[in-house]
Amino acid sequence: MGSTLDAAALSDFSSDHSFTFSASSGSFRGGAWNSLSQCGARLASPDGETAARDTSRTTLQTPSEPGERMACQEQVVHCISGGLILAGVLFLLRQLRFQMPYGRYAGSSKRWLVPARVAWFLQELPSFLVPVLLLLSTHQPSILGKYLLLCTFCLHYFHRTFIYSLFTKSRPSPLKIMISAFAFCSFNGFCQGHYLLHCAEYTEAWLRDIRLVTGLILFFLGMAINIHSDYILRCLREPGDFTYKIPRGGLFDYISGANFFGEIMEWFGYAIATWSMPAFSFAFFTTCLIGPRAYHHHRWGCAFNSSAMKK
Ligand SMILES: NC(=O)c1ccc[n+]([C@@H]2O[C@H](COP(=O)([O-])OP(=O)(O)OC[C@H]3O[C@@H](n4cnc5c(N)ncnc54)[C@H](OP(=O)(O)O)[C@@H]3O)[C@@H](O)[C@H]2O)c1
Fold first, then answer.
1. Are 173 and 47 in the same domain?
2. What residues line ligand 1, using a CB cutoff of 6 Å?
3. For the 3-oxo-5-alpha-steroid 4-dehydrogenase C-terminal domain, which residue ranges apply (predicted)?
4. Is residue 67 in some structural domain?
5. pLDDT digits (tens, 9 = 90+) for 119-150
6. Which residue stretches of the chain are H helix?
7. Structural domain of 13
8. What is the pTM for the complete model shown?
9. Are 266 and 133 part of one and the same domain?
């Protein structure tokens, strides 16, 4: 092939190796990466441009060269995404009868409780730290994938880990909830980060794609609703007070679970902006996890109102 590669040759080569990208859809690839790795070759196209445009990016590297981009584990990512959807359905079914045992549903046991600020900080930290560490250890990430990851996923978890946890006035959290949330956040942080940095490949056309624009609008709108609603809830309490009142203002005037509504909107926005299976499965899982919680809160609020009217 020599040191230069013309566009036609590359196009033949890429179709032979299922190297798929489309200018209109900003698609991704992974199969190609694996095929190339198996051939002992790497096609360096880190910024999503077609390598045909810049032949200097077409290089041959040995698979173990230090600092190279981690190979996309496409099969694993798809299995995990399927697993997340299945887990979401199971959570949904379980929550038809049982509430997630934290906050007002934690029960009266005082054993194995962790202060809420510590619990929220520790359990959410991996969702921020794991993608950031992946990003720092990846020398040739997908450039648009990198910015999408930083502007959406990491931004959300930066707020949740360093701001929400600092100000929360929640009652102490059960240790087992904290541990399971920590495990989930580590796993999901890796899955989302790995996919956006090592598997997804967006062309420049994706910057003008309606899915990216709509997805980002939904994400930031959802984030604003979520943060504002959590702020309203926080203002209902003085420090050390764990009583419940009916929240008023913002979207709480229309929906009882306004903070959950914002969070669900955020993750569907993220899924649309990235147009990726792991992001869709995470949005689905979130809906199955906090959707029923919103419903239980609503029922609790109705019962609270009717008992207040009787008094
Ligand atoms: N992505 C995900 O999978 C996921 C999963 C879970 C949570 N989250 C997000 O994490 C945040 C917190 O979740 P959460 O389940 O703790 O939400 P939540 O049950 O609505 O509670 C949020 C905070 O407000 C307090 N609170 C709730 N209702 C209140 C009322 N009527 N009067 C006074 N205080 C009240 C809670 O105190 P208590 O804790 O003492 O009840 C807690 O401090 C939300 O933004 C949620 O969207 C995301």
1. no
2. 103-104, 168-171, 226, 230, 233, 236-237, 242, 244-245, 247, 259-260, 263, 286, 289-290, 293
3. 172-301
4. no
5. 999 999 999 999 999 999 988 778 998 899 98
6. 7-16, 31-38, 74-95, 116-137, 143-148, 155-158, 165-167, 175-194, 210-234, 258-274, 277-310
7. 7-57
8. 0.81
9. yes
